[in-house]
Amino acid sequence: MNFCKNYPLPDWTLGFEHRKSLASQLPYKEYTGPMEKSASDTNDYRLIRLPNNLVVMCVQDTETETAAATLSVDVGSNMDPVELQGLAHFLEHMLFM
């Protein structure tokens, strides 16, 4: 499983701690090791893996007043089943609802 083909995910058995969310008490893993970043990068980063194996990278920029989210999915229309052509495009629209 790759977050991006150029940036492989770390070994989930090393440097990660098991945690539970405060509100729902659902378990997740959070990377607690050092993150490699530029010396001029003032952002704070958290890398977590949810129970459904979704990988989330949280970036905190204290100098901005806005928030944003992005999602990278390493599949597309070439993965559509023959009997469900257009499924990837349909699901893409579902992400923005």
Radius of gyration: 17 Å
Number of strands: 6
Q: Percent range for helical residues?
A: under 10%
Summarize the main sheet.
4 strands, antiparallel
How are strands sequenced across the largest beta sheet? 3-4-5-6
The helix/strand series, from N terminus to C terminus, equals: EEEEEEH
Shape: extended
General description of the model:
The chain has 97 residues and is mainly beta. It is 9% helix and 28% strand. It is built from 1 helix and 6 strands, in the order ββββββα. It has one helix at 87-95, and strands at residues 2-4, 7-8, 16-20, 27-31, 44-49, 55-60. A 4-stranded antiparallel sheet has the order 3-4-5-6, with no helix packed on it. The protein has a two-stranded antiparallel sheet with strand order 1-2. Strand 5 (44-49) and strand 6 (55-60) form a beta hairpin. The chain is extended. The chain starts with a strand and ends with a helix. The model has no long low-confidence stretch (mean pLDDT 81).
Identify the notable features of this structure and list them briefly.
6 strands, 9% helix, single chain, mainly beta, 97 residues
Structure, briefly:
The chain has 97 residues and is mainly beta. It has one helix at 87-95; strands spanning 2-4, 7-8, 16-20, 27-31, 44-49, 55-60.
SSE blueprint and pairings:
Elements: E1 2-4, E2 7-8, E3 16-20, E4 27-31, E5 44-49, E6 55-60, H1 87-95
Antiparallel strand pairs: 1-2, 3-4, 4-5, 5-6
